[in-house]
């Protein structure tokens, strides 16, 4: 049989062929940034955000933050805890905030350049629960937290670590030790730190220094840790968040300022109104960071969507979410800073809704040219649950997007004249030299997608993509090996963790 | 309770508020066209496609078509059935092919303008089977065909009809009567006609004229019918397809030239090589249409993807599919014509794979600015099956995209200064006048997405989006009512169908 022969030939060839080379580690956006706002609207939103900060101000609950703002020229009403920030202060902050930030990783090959044009994915973050088809939905614990880090580590398209499942079985005053140990010993990607009070932040920074053998100065001169600062919209900055901005700025670490403005709830119901609020809160956070330490790494950010009209719950992947993401990108470019966005899903299970919402968010961030897309994989229930099968299916989407980032080279050979001449009308290209030379590395190999026909698929058990994903994450965990240097890093921090735990740890603020 | 009071107020208000006004009928692309090919690569592909047609030529199986090509100046080898087409002939065709085509519908409000910038969706087409969660997977029959038309008719975001399920219980020589009767009596959107031989085409055109009360001249002066012409890649045009191009051109009806170039199978394995072939075949079809009747409506088109390396099956929503769609758009704009693309899925069931692949294809076509996206809803198994639940979930995606097409107006009120001033830090916008005035129409209302929390969702049965879609299509079919004029159109063609059926119908070519 000609066909069988050909297939055998290809199979034999495959084992000799070089593996398909893919580099998902350092991605650049393939598309030009799109707009939903006119240039006039961008100007008007920026101007109104400045007016909001100057005329109405932010409520800032941390006295130290109010003092820093006041020292920078803000008008502070101590009794009301209100801080009115002048446009000149914001303007000064925007001149010192860096446009490009190198985020260091334990493995230097995983360092990231955080700047306009970069495309960075981080996984589902902040989830109190986790779910999978084997063990069901349950509160996050340390074993699950560590498993999620192994999943993050196993896919290059996840560029930064994230707190995918809160380890609730670890007492709150010791939890940050477990979270940092997991990151340093199970992975080698850029690290996150929760801004849960000064004590935990200082401990976390100390662990990074110890693990990596860095002096205080080495550490402060580079960006090793990232935190997300959520304002308490509208127009409020609570104590731990303000402390986070200050402590990260002082230590040269990255705060990602992220108002969570749900249009119709914590923000105006219109896209433009929600963006005025988000932009103002973002600029207030950036200003605090720059007043604390001019040049401190800080990111513009947003994660705004709308509430659902029926349930009042947050919705994701909606037209409003997409528009807010694209509009956020316009405003970030207006002030000249790299910025974060997010994908995500409100679905309760890894189903078509979950896939659809995530794809809408991912593509919104693609056409918006978001620097960092948080919650890019695994987010269910609007962030209340990390889904293992959702994570695997989302990785497929991220890998497809990552493939688009490598520009087509278009050499004369790619035009395939010889193959086009050789193959007769109605024939096929399977066996041409042009195909054989490229077949093993021409196409993306799916992770979850099953392309067999209905009969074969049915005979093999007729599993959905969600069902198939179970065996995939199980295999990924079975195949996992710790990265180079992991055990050294673990040893470097063991004594510190034991001593600090013994001394009572660091309780988060009330 | 303040909250309950507010909610009650909103619910009461809702019943009085005007319904949310959405117009999904005439969409324009919201994003600027993106590129995967350099301008030089576009030039090189175009030049090589012309060289392919001129030096190697197309095999054209229909003698009449070879004669038309020869009369237009092509070099024809009758023994080999090969037609070599000069670049000058292609150039002349490209000057007469229309850049904007008005596609008429039985309901004039559903007429479409087929031109660059328009965004038109048509449903899954060409499926021999259908599947749903109640009745399972089965061969298409007339009842199913008619049901799918009711589904197409019920969603404005489906702009054209398509043959979603082949009515295999109707004998082939009579099937076109049933398919046209269904379209004319169950819907009022633009019509499709299969190019299955001259007899069926003439019958179908006659039914349209009778149904709509058009003279031959009226009919020929407007575009009432659309057909898809698939070349038999590589470089072959079979008899029914050539006949279709000729007959549609003569009658002023629209041929959508669509090579189906699977990279690595019927086309070169590279994106650029596949595009050379697709572009050449497209230009050959357009040239035949324009030689037949200069100015005849004809569309540039492509539906190219890659084969799966494991199974040899077509894959969709892949990086190669996305790149080919965007590259096709670049080539269509290079020759200045509106163009068709497609979404679709190879999944065997309405699952996350199905959703993911469809979203990738839809967004590829969005950033490529495809004029017409075929198979936008319901396509499973690479076109072998129409899925009811997949259709409903895909409609959700299309509606979200359609929402993005209405530009933001950004009036001063949208910036929401009054609301931003009224709401205190840490407060909420639920009850502001700005929100209350807009709440009922600010946001897209989901069709399938369930945004309730996990407890509520579980208590309600814990259904996936695929499961929920069943009740939705059942309700849509229960609520369906025939459009205005449908019964008149049916009466107008009844006698013709009876007579023609009596006379033996019109068998498709062998």
What does this structure look like?
Chain A has 510 residues and is an alpha/beta fold. The first copy, chain A, has a domain at 92-406 and 489-502: Alpha-Beta Barrel (TIM Barrel). The first copy, chain A, has 19 helices and 21 strands. Chain A has helices at 2-16, 39-56, 63-71, 87-96, 142-154, 175-186, 198-212, 216-221, 239-250, 271-292, 319-335, 352-368, 388-404, 417-422, 433-436, 439-442, 454-459, 465-479, 486-502, and strands spanning 27-28, 58-60, 75-77, 82-84, 100-103, 112-115, 118-121, 129-132, 136-139, 191-192, 225-229, 236-237, 254-257, 262-263, 298-301, 305-307, 314-315, 339-342, 372-374, 379-380, 385-387. Chain A has an eight-stranded mixed sheet with strand order 1-7-19-18-15-13-11-10. A four-stranded mixed sheet of chain A has the order 3-4-2-12. A four-stranded mixed sheet of chain A has the order 9-8-21-20. In chain A, helix 2 (39-56) crosses helix 11 (319-335) and helix 6 packs parallel to helix 7 (198-212).
Average pLDDT for all residues of chain A: 94
Biggest interface and which pair forms it? A-B, 123 and 123 residues
Strand content of chain A: 5-15%
CATH top level class name of the domain at 92-406 and 489-502 in chain A = Alpha Beta
**What would you call the quaternary organization?**
homodimer
| Count of DSSP strands of chain A | 21
Biggest sheet architecture of chain A:
8 strands, mixed
